[in-house]
Amino acid sequence: DAARAAQVVSETEAGYAFGHPVLWDVIYRRVPAPRRTLLHERAAVALERLYGNAADGDAAELAYHLVAAGRVNPDRATHYLAVAGAHAARVAERGVVTPPERRDGICPGV
Fold first, then answer.
1. Cα dihedral angle (47, 51, 52, 58), rounded to 10 degrees?
2. Helix ranges restricted to H, the chain
3. Which of 26, 68, 96, 106 is the most buried (most CB within 10 A)?
């Protein structure tokens, strides 16, 4: 809340936007670890609900939140890590290298 008030971070439809990656890091590290764990778990649950049966398409994002949530759901985290890894391997096998602005169409959710 203080970061928003200071206009260091802004709230968007997709979440929060930071003016610089260093700002994200500083603010993120100031959130107490137990709260970060809870927020990551809530994010994973919300994303699974949002994506429904298509959740595997955003496996990297879900894996990130579940790993950051800690030991809360190791089976779900392992599942999404495996799916994201398999997707990355398929992309690497094709030898696809694209600029970041075109990356979303090749590797959604990463």
1. -90
2. 2-5, 21-30, 33-51, 59-68, 74-94, 100-103
3. 68
